[in-house]
Design goal:
This protein has 97 residues and is an alpha+beta fold. Helices cover 40% and strands 31% of the residues. It has helices at 15-31, 62-70, 72-84; strands spanning 4-12, 35-39, 53-59, 85-93.
């Protein structure tokens, strides 16, 4: 079964405030078994446009990745996130060849 992923591209508008979001999202991510594969870090833009921060989360499957995003725990975190950042998030099924 293919894993599920969140891919997020974010511009943080208030780094101090964003720490509140990081604390909030931990509850949902723990409940749904999320694993950070990418969490910020340096990057090199090779083509197109980029935001300032990139995050990739791995879940056991696509259904779990979707359930986490739609959960009450994450919706509470998302409300906090939106106060301190703008961004794009996709939930995608992985390829298991």
């Amino acid at each position: 079964m293919a894993k599920g992923y969140w891919i997020a591209h974010v511009d943080v508008t208030d780094p101090e405030g964003y720490k509140e979001y990081v604390a909030f999202n931990a509850k949902a991510f723990s409940k749904y078994g999320a694993k950070f594969l990418v969490r910020g870090g340096p990057f090199t833009l090779k083509s197109g446009n980029a935001r300032s921060r990139h995050v990739v989360l791995e879940f056991k499957d696509y259904a779990t990745a979707l359930a986490c995003y739609e959960s009450p725990e994450y919706k509470a975190a998302e409300a906090v996130r939106n106060k301190y950042s703008t961004g794009d998030v996709i939930v995608i099924e992985g390829y298991d060849g």
